[in-house]
Amino acid sequence: MSQSTVSEFSQATAVTRQGDHSFTAELDAGWKVAGAVNGGYLLGVAGQALRTVNPNTPDPLVISTFYLGPSREGLVDITTRTLREGRSTASYGIELSQNGAPTISAMATMGNLGELPDDVGTTATPPQLPPPEECVGVAEASEDFKKAAPLIERFDMRLDPATAGFAVGKPSGRGVLQGWIRFVDGTDPDPLSLLTFLDSFPPVMFDLGRFNWAPTMELTAHVRALPAPGWISARLSTRNIAGGMFEEDCELWDSAGRLVAQSRQLARQPRG
Amino acid sequence: MSQSTVSEFSQATAVTRQGDHSFTAELDAGWKVAGAVNGGYLLGVAGQALRTVNPNTPDPLVISTFYLGPSREGLVDITTRTLREGRSTASYGIELSQNGAPTISAMATMGNLGELPDDVGTTATPPQLPPPEECVGVAEASEDFKKAAPLIERFDMRLDPATAGFAVGKPSGRGVLQGWIRFVDGTDPDPLSLLTFLDSFPPVMFDLGRFNWAPTMELTAHVRALPAPGWISARLSTRNIAGGMFEEDCELWDSAGRLVAQSRQLARQPRG
């Protein structure tokens, strides 16, 4: 698809300004999974509002989000408040609500990724996984699965066969998922789409044979660089499953081999 | 010291209720480092206020904090707001300000760690480090250092010799620090003190030979279990130093070998 067309993601995350610190948006049913709108998509919507509040700081550097209740398709009210506006970064609070009930409360420090110094001292290494054409396409999922998770049709998502055993009833038990992701309409990644990618893969608990929905309590995302065009590779892992909760880490690497985003979430364990 | 004495930590983090959602506290000069009050200590103060708001949910499960400006010793005003109160967990926003200027904005989900299910499926492993008596006592630091960082006199803190090379001008360059921590007055750890411990060690950048102050932009902490009495061991690491910022992860393990708290912060790189 030509890049001049408005991307599916831009369209679905568009916000309408209602006042200095208030917006509305229409949550799109195409980004649902297990009956609720996906949390990563909601981060994209929040990011659009924050970008509009202050065009000098268009990029989320860090955003921390508390999920207070499930989000439904349709109208959402968004309010922002200024915590601190500096020369190169600015921090805001942002709340999403539907029918008067809060669904998301978040805080973010925004900045301009294109203006950061270009030092890179990363000791982290990118996920080792086969090229996309040798991975398992999530688009090959059953029609029933797609109906329950229309979200997966927004992406071209490929899972490393070594961590995709859950799809054929053979989870590895290691608590790791790896794969590739890009938008199905060919749009290249930008900082806001990284927020969405961080929470779009199947839950890492699938690799432990636990398939029910795992509601996110809180997710913090760092976006560290503008992503190069092309595929994003991802590594999800969990190390501490205890007390009815688990943490899930996600790293996103761009096609130039740069660690562009990191997240950690605390979620409730699936009941199954 | 007998446990019946009020601990230094309890005293220094005490809050005075001023209204349903407002408190004051006196920030104690003994918890300063590099001219400002330590961010981990401030989390303890915030935790005390949140615990007072709702005694049914005394423990922080997850708290995400944005540091908006340095905190000074003396009076701090604290306001909280309810985001969602449920049966077993409750989420709040909390703001600290001094002389009318916001210094900290945070959100937390509180719960009751003693009532969580007792499943533990951790694949993480505790830090491998010598016993405390074979580690480097931070109390052996120079008088000048102690004067600049009275904070370190609140703890009995011992660093793994393998990661304490920075103290003698030989940082390992790996971006890892390990050590032991407990309160110097003998008080055993509780969930609020874990918040403080998470941000009390020397910055992990010291192990990379970069010794200037590294201001935290945002820190998210998960507290996952009530800590057993005794020493807490800690592992701090950074993997992604880029664009003038770095992330620092900290894990705290209790004397029973349980991973009791995890944090990740995004900080600005020291200028030095």
TrEMBL record, chains A, B:
Location of the Acyl-CoA thioesterase-like N-terminal HotDog domain: 28-111
Classification via Gene3D superfamilies: Acyl-CoA thioesterase, double hotdog domain
Domain Acyl-CoA thioesterase-like C-terminal: 132-267
Pfam families: 4HBT_3, 4HBT_3C
Protein name per Swiss-Prot or TrEMBL: Acyl-CoA thioesterase
